[in-house]
Automatic annotation (TrEMBL), chain A:
The gene is LSM3. This is LSM complex subunit LSM3. GO terms for biological process: mRNA splicing, via spliceosome. It holds the Pfam family LSM. It comes from Serendipita vermifera MAFF 305830. Residues 10-95 form the Sm domain.
UniProtKB/TrEMBL annotation, chain B:
Residues 1-27 are annotated as: Disordered. GO terms for biological process: maturation of SSU-rRNA; mRNA splicing, via spliceosome; tRNA processing. One of its GO terms (cellular component) is P-body. The keyword tRNA processing applies. This is U6 snRNA-associated Sm-like protein LSm6. One of its GO terms (molecular function) is RNA binding.
UniProtKB/TrEMBL annotation, chain C:
Residues 164-235 form a coiled coil. GO terms for molecular function: RNA binding. Signal peptide: none annotated. GO terms for cellular component: nucleus; P-body. Residues 83-97, 264-276 have a biased composition (Polar residues). It comes from Serendipita vermifera MAFF 305830. Pfam families: PAT1. The lineage of its organism: Eukaryota, Fungi, Dikarya, Basidiomycota, Agaricomycotina. It comes from the Eukaryota. This is mRNA decay factor PAT1 domain-containing protein. Keywords: Coiled coil, Cytoplasm, Nucleus, RNA-binding.
Amino acid sequence: MAEVSGEIQEPFDLIRLSLSERVVVKLRGDRQLSGVLHAYDGHMNLIMSDVEETIMIVDPVPEGVKPSIRVAKRHIEMLYVRGDGVILVSPPQRE
Amino acid sequence: MSDEASPPPPDGTPPPAPTQSSGSPSGFLKAVVGKRVVVRLVSGVDYRGVLQCLDGYMNIAMEQTEEYVNGVVTNRYGDAFIRGNNVLYISAGEPI
Amino acid sequence: MSFFGFETSLPQHQDTGQNQAFAEEDVAVYTWGDASYDTLGDALQEAGDDLNDETFGSGPVGKDFDFSGTFDNTRQPKPEPAPSQNIPSGLSNGNNAWTSNAATSVLPKHVHPSGSAAAPSVFSRIDPLLAGRTEPKQVAAAVHPPVDAPFMIAGDYASQPRTMAEIEADMKAAAMQQQQLAQQRERARILEQQQMLAQQQQQQQRLQEEERMRQEQQEKLASIERERLLQLERQARSDPLWAIRQAMMEQKIGNQGHVHERNQSIPSEASPMSRNRQPMIPVLPSQMPHAAPAQQQMMLQELLYHQQQQQQFLEQQLHAQQHSEKSAEVMADAQRRIQEAEILEAKHRRRVSKIQSMARYNDLMTQSDKDFITRVQVAQLVTSDPYADDFYAQVYASIKQQRNASEINLLKLGSAGASTQGNPNQRGPHRRENAIQRMQAQVERLVNNMKSRELSKEAGAPHGPLANVLGKTSGRSYKAAPRQLLQIAIASPESAKAHPVKEHEAEKAPEHIPSHGNQAPPPFSRAEALLIIERLFTNILDMEQLRRNKPLAEEQVAIAAWNEKQQALLDQIWQGLRVAGNLHETNPHPFIALIAPLKGKRFIGRLGRDLTDNQKVMALSVIVTLIDQVDVIRNAAILDSVEDSQDRRFVERQAYAFQEHVINQGLQLSPASRTLRVYNSLIEFMLENGPVFSRVMRTRPGLTLLEHFFAEAALLKHGLQGPDGEVISAPPEDIAKWDKLYDRLFDVLLPLWTIMFPSSRILPAFPPDSMEIIQVSLVTDGFDQPVWRFLAGFALEGTVEQHSRLVTQLRAKVMGTLKMAQRLEEGKAKARKIRNVDLFLNALGLSSSQIPLQ
């Protein structure tokens, strides 16, 4: 058997190494999640716990005015994320 | 959020024309692995960084990733996994 | 055989010539079974159709089948004037038949209620039980005992479907009851006529006499009327019809009076004459035995009908008068015809009643049922293989094939020539073969697809063992489902090695400086460390699986192979941990880097029984030697904060995981290997780091680690209780070394003790003697407790001289803590402060209560 290497050989390795770690997930609809990743599959369906969901709400403003962005947050203990809404997953950034 | 509306990123020189990619899409993709790339999503958001690897679903792993919205850096990620269905194109950010 | 009146003889396209002609057409030809006629058709019962007409009718289909509503749909069967039993009477009584029933038969549906007037006598003749005085219930019981309620005429038929016999019985019973009622009603009048009527009916000769008498009467009538008619004719030649009607009216009036006389004189004459009037009686509602709303109309109809009947009668009278001379033979002829008509009429009525009874259930098939059948029929028409869905056809075909050995080869499916071996003329089997072949091919393809999918899943697929752990989510129903866009060979390790990041960082660290690893390059990124851990996790899962599948002890070969496998896995895990190797090649050391993530620490915790003690000691050595590289030591400063933050919680978790999973679980030595020598050397390793050691001692995780080693060593120094109760002491040379090491440690630690207390690092930031500092100290007391405990344990090993040095060194700390406790209210917080101090003082044989405080 080959020696256990740490090289990322395919994109899913990046997700795999984030198992049971805190990850940032960017979703469609200006949503972002931060939570501990517990499981994933090839569709990027995710199981996450201790999740903080951040929703960017762009309030409609007249043309020309800089749009103000409100941020709504909520906490979810355990979450199943359907893969088709996932845009980006970023592994933990600690250290 | 049209492609034309987003100005070129301020920090980078315009990507050079691919000179010696092997003449097929997968040849190009093999050539850009490990290089700086710009990944544009269908939403118009750009990700600039080093292409770690990618698979046949166009899922992409990048490092030193910077997120550009309308030419402005909006986020930085050490590593980033981009789900393939969102990818519009991958362009080389440095000579291959 | 006529079936429901449909023509059953199909167009004759079954002969071979035509069949071949059809073969060229693109039209489905239904030739089931013509290949080998199984003579099933011959087995059809062709006999016994004689009663079909009676059951289903023979004439043209008329309004009888109009169940939609023109028919009286009340549950009550139509009053039946002439049930089957009455027919003979009608026949035997020629006059009755001719005069009343003949007229009735003109309007079959409009039943003449009074038609049953003659019935009692009929019954009395046929069956004495049915004579006038007999109770209706007895009659019914006699006729048809099984029927529970034979006299339920209106409304309360049993709701369940009934057999034909029951329906017939009901009809009979209903008719009989009606007759009985009519009989009761007319009993008074009939009573005097009954005997004579019976005689008349029994004796055919009497009939003729009556006929003769009647003719005489008619002749008399005729002679009376002749003159008037002649007058009338003369009067109304311009309008003969009017004149006739006029005459009829007059005649009717005249006749009535006349007939009354006749009735008294000749009772048997009652039938023709009285019947013309009797209708008036049942028409009256009060006298209707079971007047239903629908019968109102019937009454009107009957009024009309009776008028008509009277007219007819008068016409007949007229006719008789005019042709009296011929009447004898004409009568005979007419009677015969009327009898025939009567039989037909009776049949017809029975049929109508039956159908009416049955029609109550003829809507049981719902619309969806009909639609279903329509769909089936349409599908049969549209399909290219009409037998594809026919279970019985398929079963039949397969049975036939099994029986016919020569055909087995024909149906070797998938072989290209199979279908051509068959007789091309046998289109049916040929088609079936094709259909089955197609089906077989499809199934084969499906199975193969499934197999290959399973294989690709096992062979690993991007997400390996995690595929479908959450259930199958395959399917292309959604556009965002992952789709393979192009074939890309997974990046080869070589290309990954030409990694710009690594190159950059390698450039940044031009030279290796072994002694101070700070500038050595990291062995791998954090991401890589995580990935390595994940792969090691896979290995350990493999091994756990392997252990579950351990062969029995007797199977030595299998055991050997199993051992080999296990050892290979263990080696792989050990290699993967990267403990061995140059200590200072990278910073941090690969092993230290691997245990940096929480996941790495937890992973070490699972290796408790997979690593040898030797390997554990090696790993511990790496940790203590390079302790300043360990993440929890490096990040420990954040623990010296009383403010809660995410970072702090993170490091707390890491510190706990380091001590618990790495030191206490994963790298815990087995009792056999726990020797004083091992701990001596581990403590020595820590001490040798000089400046690093003093820094480490100011961290809670570092202190905890030292305390752990110290406690083990102290225990071993005093000796362990062996299995037989004897004390196993450590080797003397190790004890000697330990004593030296302790003195050295004491000296190194003595100046550090004060600063080793977290409170000493935290509290100076707050204004002294404020309430705030006391509040904060309540928090730091918790942090301080392990230090006090360690200090107590450490002091226990010391000499008296060392004790006094400790007291001198720590006097300020002790006094400060006690002073702070003094300012607190009595309670848990105060007690804890004092308890902390006493931990140390008690070890020295002192107590906080002995210390005087100003």
